[in-house]
Amino acid sequence: MGKLQGKTAVVTGGNSGIGYAAAEAFIAEGARVAILGRRRQAVDAAVARLGAAAFGVVGDVADLATHAALAAEVRERFGAVDIYMANAGMNNIEPSAAVSVGSYDAQFGTNTRAVFFGVTGVLPLMRDGGSIIVTSSIASAKVLENHAVYAGSKAAVEAFARAWALEFKSRRIRVNVLSPGPTDTPILEKLGVAEAHRPAFEQGMASLIPLGRLAQSSELARAALFLASDDSSFITGVNLRVDGGIALT
């Protein structure tokens, strides 16, 4: 029997990268999973790969109506939720002096407000003893060039998670943070790393990481599975950095 047999999970940003890998890992351990993404084609393709245990919801996490629609769909299909992984995020790498109000609002809308209202929206559906996983970043603790807004948005969700770990304790709902380091995901392309420049980029990043390489999405997924399952039954309010040691440098 799988570690998540009979459980239900929701993963935002579950159509690619770390979110998709986590959804795949949850399903492999017996869970049914709802993934949320912005693009219909990408969500449908991810669901097709994940199989019959998955279904997809399309919407922008920064739009609060998306969370209401997601909760309604999950209630109809599953009735309740055991695991909620707030994973969707975005990052505009730019110096602070160049940050527009639109860029600031977009990053906080997706990375921060969406996490807060995603969790509060799903909370009435969550079974007692459930697990909430908030995806943050090592950028909240390690200063990275031109990441000020992104870092602030991620520091905020870590504060949410600490507060929720105590706030939800009467229902035995555990709340933990997963903080990836540099990871080999499609977001590298969105950050402007051209395919031709990718080997040099990866080599440069690897030189900064004590373990000498980028993480794979599957490695973050295994950490998410740990936080979702009873393997972490006595763990709440922690920030699990899966970063190859880069936060130490």
Structure description:
The protein has 249 residues and is an alpha/beta fold. It has a single domain, classed as NAD(P)-binding Rossmann-like Domain (Rossmann fold). 42% of the residues lie in helices and 19% in strands. The protein has eight helices and nine strands. The chain has a seven-stranded parallel sheet, with helices on both faces. Strand 1, helix 1 and strand 2 form a beta-alpha-beta unit. Helix 3 packs parallel to helix 4. The radius of gyration is 17 Å and the shape is globular. The protein starts with 7 loop residues before the first strand and ends in a 7-residue tail after the last strand. 44% of the residues are buried. GO terms for molecular function: oxidoreductase activity, acting on the CH-OH group of donors, NAD or NADP as acceptor. Belongs to the short-chain dehydrogenases/reductases (SDR) family.
In short:
By secondary structure, the chain is of the alpha/beta class.
